[in-house]
Amino acid sequence: MSTESNTLETTVPPQILLNHHLKQLRLPTFIREHEKIAFECAQGEVNYQRFLLRLCELEHIDRERRNMERRIKQARFPQVKGLDTFDFQAIPGLNKALVLELARCEWIGRKESCIALGNSGTGKTHTALALGLAACQKNHSVLFTTAAALVHELMEARDERRLRQLQRQLVRVDLLIVDELGYVPFTAVGAELLFEVISRRYEQGAILVTSNLPFDEWTSVFGSERLTGALLDRLTHHSHILEMNGDSYRLETRKRRKQQSAHLAEITQDR
Ligand code: ADP
Ligand code: MG
């Protein structure tokens, strides 16, 4: 073995051999940057240790970025939105400090739950997306889905005899986001399947649910009072509640736009 590698080292140019090893070791940033950094370090008379340190730092930063991008892709967000574009002043009833605390993601490590409740257009999906994005940035695995899509997927998996496999996947992810619970009522089977997912995750992984319905109306979605009671019992134990009732942001922006164009029309008419 050693003679073979010795022969390789003498017959293959070191540049090619180096790239080969770096590829095997999965160090793409080393491959891309080492010549440039070596040149810079030689110019600046930087020693070998610092040269290696610079390369390692670059590889580390790049790896974290690649991991985050992979996490975001795997999360299946319908859109990527962060808290940086969320206007807390538009919804004064929302506990901003709690949202910022949740964005630090410690609750995910503690396998707790978060429930955002409020009428339509108040930023529940936006907040869920932003908390999901924050989780990806902290290298947590996330899966974003709507309640209707999840139930549909569970029913399909059941029919195709791969329900266990899907349930395992749903338990494994660090944060499961179930958006829009309450818009569509479930069939008895659909309700049971969703209940099972939420039960299995209880104290096993973090979950974030958004709903336009207050808790006392959840029975209308799940059909059964017994099931709803058992589900709420699990979901609200170790949970953070985001109260998000307020004016619809969509409606407010539309109103504002209308006012602006009316104002513009007035100005142009005056001229
Ligand atoms: P919900 O899920 O509560 O019905 P969404 O999160 O879908 O509401 O919000 C509707 C639209 O308004 C989205 O485009 C969202 O980004 C935007 N929006 C809602 N609330 C805010 C807010 N406070 N700041 C910035 N954009 C907001
Ligand atoms: Mg929504």
Task: Put the structure in a nutshell.
It is built from 13 helices and 5 strands. With 271 residues, it is α/β, with parallel strands linked by helices.
Describe this entry's structure for a reader.
This protein is an alpha/beta fold and 271 residues long. 61% of the residues lie in helices and 10% in strands. It has 13 helices and 5 strands. Strands 2-3-4-1-5 form a 5-stranded parallel sheet. α4 packs antiparallel against α7. Adenosine-5'-diphosphate is lined by residues 81, 85-87, 90-91, 120-126, 249-250.
Radius of gyration: 26 Å
Q: What ions, cofactors and ligands are bound? A: adenosine-5'-diphosphate, magnesium ion
Helix content: 55-70%
Extended strand count:
5
Judged by helices, strands and strand pairing, the structural class is: alpha/beta
* Overall 3D form: extended
Q: Cα distance, first to last residue?
A: 89 Å
Low confidence ranges: none
**N to C succession of SSEs:** HHHHHHEHEHHEHEHHEH
Overall average pLDDT: 92
The percent range for strand residues is 5-15%
* Major beta sheet, strand line-up: 2-3-4-1-5
Q: Please summarize the sheet with the most strands.
A: 5 strands, parallel
Note the total helix count. 13
Key terms:
five-stranded parallel β-sheet; about 270 residues; extended; 13 helices; binds magnesium ion; binds adenosine-5'-diphosphate
Topology of this protein?
Layout: H1 2-11, H2 14-24, H3 28-43, H4 48-75, H5 96-102, H6 106-109, E1 113-117, H7 124-137, E2 142-146, H8 147-159, H9 163-172, E3 175-181, H10 188-201, E4 206-211, H11 219-222, H12 225-235, E5 239-243, H13 249-270
Parallel strand pairs: 1-4, 1-5, 2-3, 3-4
Helix pairs in contact: 3-4, 4-7, 8-9, 8-10, 10-12
Magnesium ion (MG) binds near residues 124, 179 and 180.
